[in-house]
Design brief:
34% helix, polyphosphate kinase like, globular, alpha/beta, 21% strand
Amino acid sequence: MSSMPTNPASETPASPENDPASTLRINHTHAGIRARAAANAARDLDDAGLYFNRELSTLRFHVRVLEQALDETHPLLERLTFLLIFSSNLDEFFEIRVAGLKRRIAYGNEEPGMDGHSTSSIFHEIATTAHEQVERQYHILNTQLIPALAERGIHFLRRNNWNKAQREWVSSYFDDEIMPVISPIGLDPSHPFPRLVNKSLNFIVELEGRDAFGREGGMAIIPAPRSLPRLIRLPKALEREECQEYVFLSSMIHAHAEQLFPGMTVRGCYQFRLTRNADLAMDTEDVADLASALKSELLARRYGDGVRLEVANNCPSHLSDFLLKQFQLGHEDLYLVDGPVNLSRLMAMIGDSERADLRYNPFVPGLPKALRKDESLFDLISRQDILLLHPWESFGVIENWLAEAARDPGVLAIKQTLYRTGSDSGVVSALVDAARSGKEVTVVIELRARFDEADNIALASRLQEAGANVIYGVMAYKTHAKMLHIVRREAGRIRHYAHMGTGNYHSKTAKLYTDYSLLTARETLCEDVHHVFQQLSGMGEPRHTEHLLHAPFTLHRRLVELIDRETAHARKGHKAMLTIKCNSLTEPKLIQALYRASQAGAICQLIIRGTCCLRPGVPGVSDNITVRSVVGRFLEHTRVFHFHNAGKSETWCSSADFMERNMFQRVETCFPLLDKKIAQRVRKDLDTYMLDNCQSWTLQPDGHYEKRCPGKDEAAISAQETLLYAYAARP
């Protein structure tokens, strides 16, 4: 782009008669951006070249997580944690996203998405990338992390490194703990190939000789008992001084495999793991009882179609081919690994480790000044809005408020949505206490929260037994909104209180995820929350809301309008700017609205943690758009939308990402920050993320992400560390 004149407002625009470039209708805006409105209006915003594939973009996010294992600014055990999170993320990616692709291919559905690529081409590209990154993952583990841990006294002992005393202890452990619960399965006509549980650790064994019944040796399967840990720490008496020493369960089984087949020779024993399709395929239209139907589906999830086979890299090809045939998989689905096939199970070791020096420094969540007084939360919230930023500010405030509400004789009713909560939740305990004390408690539980279905069924039963009204939401729409509504009698009149947030009511994830919580007694906001709860529990036309945006009814349309408003301001020559921070950006109409804003000259700052289908930096379309992804100690989870609006700025928080499912297939809420000081604080937080040059990655026009690093004379800025210092309690 050519340099701007020093005084754009004084420049005389060229006329069509004397300037062949005038068809571009270049506009100079106060934001310093030249908008090419007319020319770009002709650009087809449905052009597949303007979009990245969703699955590939998601996989790139998982790779950014893996990159953290190489970042030496993280403590050593935290680097290992990132490597294990990559494993867990990849498991779910195959269980859901890859499983969906394979299902579409099986049904002959090759129709390209908005990115223009066929289903098969995307699957093949995913397979290529996933193979490369899995090989890289084990290389990082074996050549960097394990040696570095060994230097600091944490050892993973291979069989050939056991000394005599350790070997004897392992033998006793095998006899006492493993042998009684393990069940080897010989493969012959009367023992067909077993039905193995999703992601379970197993071994394929090649045998030689005859057994007690005269059967010739062949092959057998050893399913590792799911009740046993995958990593066992040696007794302190067997450890070297100031060391922690661990033995893999797989090593124990390998070392004693012949004990499972007495009189026969084990020619080889190789670990493997099958990942299955874990997406629930329940037809909600034909379900009479959602909870009962889900229980049946959860059992089926453990035995869905195979999508990926992980095998030890020393396994002979004829055995891996045999397994592929059993699971009806191709060679692209085979992943040969140089280490344990179930790495994510090592997370337990990190939690039990005594080495605090290899972890992040702990911190105590802070409290806003207003909450540091010994005062009823109701009295405080009745006077002012309270905003919390978790995990740096305490989630315990919400739990304490609910506990206070359960005890308060003036509280008449409590309504709450629960999506992911946790089985030992203080929130649920408070709701149980409130119901038992005779208060009207209504809880909207989303039973279909992926991988939390069983926990949610259990907590629904617990609440029902306490006398709470439990609603499972709306069959065709997941209830993803985060809302709490409390009705209290004060001085002879009814007063309403509400909590709205960007994250779940889950005390454990509130220590790991970044999320905003707004506590308010504003009548209009509380009335809006009340209307949404009525919509969920009753029937009828959509309820009018004064401030709240509500999916699937008003949220998508209004967000497009808010973006288009910035577009209009830019076209009038006013400063136009917006900042969107969320987890994913995939919805085509919202992407196209952002493209239009960019074309008009509006500055579009996007902070998208994970999946992003928008292509930034396309000349004439998205050259005013930047996309950043922040990956660090805490999982970025806040959804915040700021619009400059020609100086009359608006800042919103939401439970929804910019995705089709959030806009059209879920119940979501988006709420404005009406308190000016709170809105200003959140905008300052957003500015901090934009300055990050330590944990921020910038999306390039070709789809790869480039790590931002401090320049030669530039201070290092980590947004998460800055916010921790700003909001956490001082030591």
